[in-house]
Design a protein that fits this description.
Blueprint lengths: L9 H52 L6 H4 L9 E4 L21 E2 L36 E6 L8 E6 L3 E3 L6 E3 L5 E4 L5
Antiparallel strand pairs: 1-2, 1-3, 3-4, 4-7, 5-6
């Protein structure tokens, strides 16, 4: 009688484990990079919403405003980015209820959900406009805002800006002319 044992040998199992390990070593860094890029879409979408709110306010009042409540800009909770309309007085998103003061000029990242908040509202602009809006009482031709946040586990911040001006970017992800109203990734944390 022939004894036919069925199953895999230890060598065959070790080869399969090694192949899975190699595939995981290749796939995980790429997955993390794609995940970070998807988180950047929050900054782009909310920057456009911030720009639209400012343009609507300007059309109605004939001036720009740095006050979040006055403009009507309020991104949904669970935001990873800090949004600055021209100052660093932030609303509070550290408890279950978000509170926006009458003088708030920025939206903080949702620290209640564990995201990093920052009071840094400016950074080295590569597009010719420092993201800072005028005071609420000044009527000027242009406005700029910014979104700054930590989208991965390092200490480097991802920085976006948006402006009513057409800008000429000298470095970063958007080299060349950028039309007013387009969000620009000033410092891409994913690529550094």
């Amino acid at each position: 009688m022939k004894n036919s044992a069925k199953g895999f040998t230890l060598i065959e199992l070790m080869i399969v484990v090694a192949i899975i390990g190699i595939l995981a070593a290749i796939a995980i860094p790429n997955f993390i990079k794609f995940q970070a890029r998807s988180k950047q879409s929050e900054a782009k979408a909310n920057s456009k919403a911030m720009f639209t709110a400012e343009k609507a306010f300007y059309a109605e009042k004939d001036r720009w405003s740095t006050r979040v409540g006055e403009v009507g800009f309020a991104p949904e909770r669970n935001n990873r980015y800090n949004y600055f309309l021209g100052g660093s007085t932030q609303d509070s998103r550290s408890t279950t209820l978000a509170t926006t003061g009458t003088q708030a000029t920025a939206i903080s990242a949702d620290s209640f959900k564990g995201y990093t908040t920052t009071t840094t509202s400016t950074f080295g602009s590569t597009c010719g406009v420092t993201p800072a809006a005028p005071t609420t009482q000044t009527t000027v031709a242009d406005w700029a805002g910014s979104a700054i946040g930590n989208i991965d586990s390092d200490t480097v911040l991802d920085a976006w800006s948006i402006s009513t001006q057409t800008r000429n970017c000298s470095s970063g992800d958007n080299i060349g002319p950028v039309a007013g109203g387009e969000a620009v990734n000033e410092y891409n944390d994913v690529n550094h």
